[in-house]
Design goal:
The chain is mainly beta. Helices cover 11% and strands 35% of the residues. The chain has seven helices and 38 strands. It has a six-stranded mixed beta sheet with strand order 3-2-1-4-5-6. A four-stranded antiparallel beta sheet has the order 7-38-37-36, with no helix packed on it. Helix 1 crosses helix 2 (45-53) and helix 2 packs parallel to helix 3 (68-76).
């Protein structure tokens, strides 16, 4: 009899355990997430432990008043404070900031305590809430978000975001890994994912682990979703990365790989055939309306992976590294003679254009009127029809070529990188400026004729509705220029060194001597964001209602280290700040303060937190 009872008990226990496993498995399947941050409210300790053990999630487990069993179970499993964090639900509020959670699981009584508005507050866009065995809601992507889908935001190479949420005052959203990156670095953002390609040069030993590495990062909480190696020998600092809603298009020296955003696996490869191209190398890419455009061609100089044995931090040496002199167009990074258009739905080639000259990928751009622009240095400027591939015009006039002149060497801490793009465009004009340029040249999109020039060529341009914001080189000034004449409308502080400028809806950002300059364009006033200094090739990226810095690549000790995201403190249309966490979340000590405490005499002038106040103004 005892044996039967024991067997019956064990059988029931097994059914409960299998039921627990099934519930966890079903929740994970429906949430479609296995890395990131998930909040679980009202679940048993066994459910929470199983969730952590069968995934790579960070789990915030919320309980009612009795949280001891969950604390003890997580601690016994060695997961407390590393994979599992325990807190309580108070007044129906989840102790997380906005847009942080990848998923929300509500069990038992908690299903009715948390309202939809609170669930949507903590979920990041596209995140799901699971309740009573099924998906309860999915958070929509807010209208007004913009994405940084190409290395310079879009096919026109203008690093100006249209994101309506990334404005006003900001707060820290996340500080995450990796802390350091080798050079160069290239980033695109799409579908709530940040794709970072890290290059071949480590100036410090702390950068070695990410040499030739591609990372996919959650754009809302900084979680590394996956990583994969990049082919050695290929210079990544070029426009051959495009992010879409569900994939990354990544060109290299063999093909354009379509990498699944969810898994990091290659699901398709696009190649070009020898009958139209000098080789298989992808030099430049752009995407619009379901068509992939590319410059393809011959094999190039192979860069050498440079590991470092230098420990610690400090400065690093500039050099004319292999291939950066662009000595031979037939071998230089990004030079090719074939432009191709591919229908992404069918994979079929729509057209190709073959030029007699080698076109420089650093000057490939596409405007909103369907014109593709290409420049063969000291030879000609070309415009193609993006729909047909037909040559619209070709300008090799002495006036244009004299104005453009030869490319300078660059590769200096004041000028910047020789590999940097130096052509931007809009529907009316082409703008030549960058580290290689002796003077800025503006040409007509209609026929390539010179419209005007500006005496300084080493400018980081942001094209805005009110003018051309040109961040000038070190020890000069920045200038806002008129589109039609190039006349100086306003001046603003100069940038420091090589980092590019980028633009948000109310600001432009670039590097200062010890942090980031934010110029508020409406008033032409500068703010200093002290903690973070923009990485060299990326600058400050604006996407998904956030600002992004990092990881840090210089050897200089002038920035917080890590992959860092800031979120707006106010949302469009709101007059008040998002509630401060101290006001929004009750603490565990609420109502339990012991009597007889003596005040320490806090004063408004006390330096009570990092850099003085929540805005980190250091004032």
């Amino acid at each position: 009899m005892k044996t039967k009872l024991v067997l019956a008990f064990l059988g029931c226990f097994g059914l409960l355990a299998r039921g627990q496993d099934t519930a966890v498995s079903e929740a994970l399947k429906q949430l479609d997430v296995d890395r990131g941050i998930v909040c679980v409210a009202g679940a048993s300790p066994d459910f929470v432990l199983e969730l952590a053990k069968t995934s790579e999630l960070q789990v915030l487990a919320l309980t009612g008043e009795d949280d001891r069993p969950l604390f003890e179970a997580a601690e016994a499993a060695g997961l407390l404070g590393s994979r599992i964090f325990v807190n309580r639900v108070r007044d129906g509020r989840i102790p997380l900031a906005e847009n942080v959670a990848d998923g929300l699981i509500l069990v038992d009584v908690m299903s009715d305590l948390i309202e939809a508005a609170e669930a949507e507050r903590v979920l990041r866009p596209r995140g799901r809430a699971w309740r009573k065995g099924e998906i309860w809601l999915t958070k929509a992507v807010p209208e007004g978000y913009d994405e940084w889908t190409h290395p310079f935001h879009g096919p026109d190479n203008n690093p100006q975001s249209k994101d309506r949420f990334a404005q006003g005052r900001f707060r820290t959203q996340f500080i995450a890994e990796p802390k350091f990156s080798p050079m160069p670095e290239q980033t695109v953002i799409g579908g709530g994912r940040i794709y970072k390609a890290m290059g071949h040069i480590a100036h410090k030993a702390n950068q070695n682990e990410n040499l030739n590495t591609l990372l996919c990062i959650n754009a809302y909480n900084g979680t590394i979703l996956w990583k994969r190696p990049l082919p050695e020998g290929f210079m990544i600092h070029r426009s051959t990365m495009i992010a879409t809603e569900d994939a990354l298009y990544l060109g290299d020296d063999q093909s354009c790989k379509v990498i699944d955003g969810r898994t990091g696996k290659v699901r398709q490869e696009l190649t070009v055939t020898p009958d139209i191209s000098d080789g298989p190398v992808w030099k430049w890419m752009a995407m619009r309306n379901g068509v992939l455009y590319a410059l393809v061609g011959n094999q190039e100089v192979k860069v050498e992976t440079m590991k470092s044995v230098r420990r610690g931090l400090g400065h690093w040496p500039w050099d004319m590294w292999k291939g950066h002199d662009y000595a031979d167009p037939e071998l230089s990074f990004g030079y090719g003679r074939t432009v191709v258009a591919i229908d992404l739905k069918t994979g079929k080639r729509l057209w190709h254009y073959r030029d007699t000259e080698f076109l420089d990928a650093r000057t490939m751009a596409m405007n909103g009127k369907g014109q593709i622009f290409c420049y063969a240095p000291e030879k000609c400027l070309v415009s193609l029809d993006a729909t047909t591939g037909v040559l619209k015009w070709r300008n090799s006039s002495p006036e244009l070529l004299a104005a453009l002149g030869p490319n300078a060497k660059a590769q200096h801490y004041i000028t910047g990188y020789a590999t940097t793009c130096y052509l931007k465009c809009d529907n009316d004009r082409l703008y030549f400026a960058g580290p290689q340029r002796e003077q800025m040249v503006v040409a007509s999109a209609e026929d390539g004729r010179v419209l005007w020039t500006h005496e300084t060529g080493n400018l980081q341009l942001v094209l805005r509705e009110d003018g051309i914001w040109a961040a000038g080189p070190q020890k000069t000034v920045g200038r806002k220029l008129a589109y039609d004449t190039g006349s100086i409308l306003e001046e603003f502080p100069a940038r420091r060194a090589c980092t590019r400028a980028t633009g948000g809806i109310d600001s432009i950002f670039y590097r200062a001597s010890g942090g980031t300059v934010r110029v508020l364009t409406g008033t032409n006033t500068a703010q200093h964001i002290a903690p973070m200094r923009p990485p060299c090739q990326d600058g400050v990226l604006i996407s998904n209602g956030h600002l992004y810095w990092g990881p840090w690549m210089c050897g200089c000790q002038l920035s917080l280290y890590g992959n860092i995201g800031l979120a707006p403190r106010t949302l469009p249309g709101e007059a008040e700040d998002i509630p401060d966490p101290k006001a929004a979340f009750a603490t565990a000590r609420e109502g339990r303060e012991p009597s007889g405490l003596v005040s320490l005499g806090a004063d408004a002038k006390d330096w009570a937190q990092y850099q003085g106040n929540p805005s980190r103004s250091s004032v």
